[in-house]
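cron nightly-structures :: item 1 of 1
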Amino acid sequence: MEQENNLTSQILTKDIVFIHGITSSGDSHIELCKHLTKQGYIFHHFDLPGHGSKLWEWNEHKFIFDDMLKFVDKYIKDNLQNKPFIIMGHSMGGGITLSTYPKFKEQIAAIILECPLSPAATNRSEENGEYTPTDVSRKTIKRAKHIAKLGWPKLMDAVRKWLGKDRCFIPLLADITKSEALEKINEGVKQVTVPTLLIVGEKDSVIPPLATSDYFGKNIRELTINKAIGSGHNPFRDTPDQFYKFIDGFLNKINK
């Protein structure tokens, strides 16, 4: 995607710290990294503990939300010191972003949230089109039927991959959905005073877009909400053109 305006001469805050979601990695948004680097930004991305290149760490430790917070805390202290920066998070990374904000609010110039984990994740409204347990059951059954058609060898391979990779994240998934983690996120949200971009996926079945938009709209004054039409939980991948347009528009606005 081509950038219409040259931001290089306009940039006030060059550093962007990106935090990925659960089961993902720092390279998940590598195309965004390339896109913003061309404009003069420094895109910091890394693997959280037990993720990406560090997946092997699960053999030695069962990670929880606080482990993610401590890692990000150390990264910022080691690499940004007193420099201003923009912080961005996808999914769980959005929750980490918000929980991190209070400690570094003197340095954080703006926040970008992509389908972020927040207390709103538990506020699903069937009347407003949010997904319900029934929808989840249907998806699970449909997926199970698909896997069954793979045949025994491929089925066993799929199970081994699940046991070897995804299952190790269950303790972390359970922890980030507990009240303690959600309260930390909520406390961070209450303290946000900087320009914030919220991107939600119209068809997100993980983070409810309507409840999420409503929650942040009530708690953050300087908020820009963009809905990625046709996108699920990953706007950066599902609808990249819209995603880049949202990011560029926000950065243009705050870096005038």
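cron nightly-structures :: done
Residues 1-10, 126-137 have pLDDT under 50 and may be disordered.
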